[in-house]
Design brief:
about 0% strand; elongated
C-alpha cells in the first residue's frame, strides 16, 4: 500500500513537470525561452516517472538499476544538448556568445 502511494506521488509529480515543460515549449515566444521547457521541467518530469518505475519494480522483484542508469544518462545529456542548440542558434544569428548586448554586428 505504501509503495503504491510513493509510486503514485512520483508519477503525479513527474507528469506535472512534464506538462509544465510541454506548455513552456508551446507557449513561450522565442527559441531561447522555449529551450528551457524541455531541458529543465521536462527532464525533471521524466526523472520523476523513472523514479516511480524504479520504486515499483524494485519492490516487486529486487533492485532495478536500469532506470537509475537512464536517469543518469538523461541528466547528463539534456544540459549538454541544450547548450549545443543554443550555441548553434547564436552562430546562425551571427552573434558571438561573449558579445555585449549594446553592440551591433561587426562585418
Amino acid at each position: 500500500m505504501v509503495i503504491e502511494l510513493i509510486v503514485a506521488a512520483f508519477l503525479l509529480i513527474g507528469a506535472g513537470f512534464a506538462f509544465i515543460g510541454s506548455l513552456g515549449l508551446a507557449r513561450l515566444p522565442d527559441f531561447y525561452a522555449r529551450l528551457h521547457g524541455p531541458t529543465k521541467a521536462t527532464t525533471l518530469g521524466v526523472g520523476g516517472m523513472l523514479i516511480a518505475s524504479m520504486v515499483h519494480f524494485s519492490a516487486a522483484s529486487g533492485w532495478s538499476l536500469h532506470e537509475l542508469l537512464v536517469i543518469l544518462f538523461l541528466f547528463l545529456t539534456a544540459p549538454v544538448s541544450a547548450h549545443l542548440m543554443a550555441k548553434a542558434a547564436l552562430h546562425l544569428e551571427g552573434r558571438s556568445p561573449g558579445a555585449g548586448e549594446g553592440k551591433g554586428r561587426e562585418r
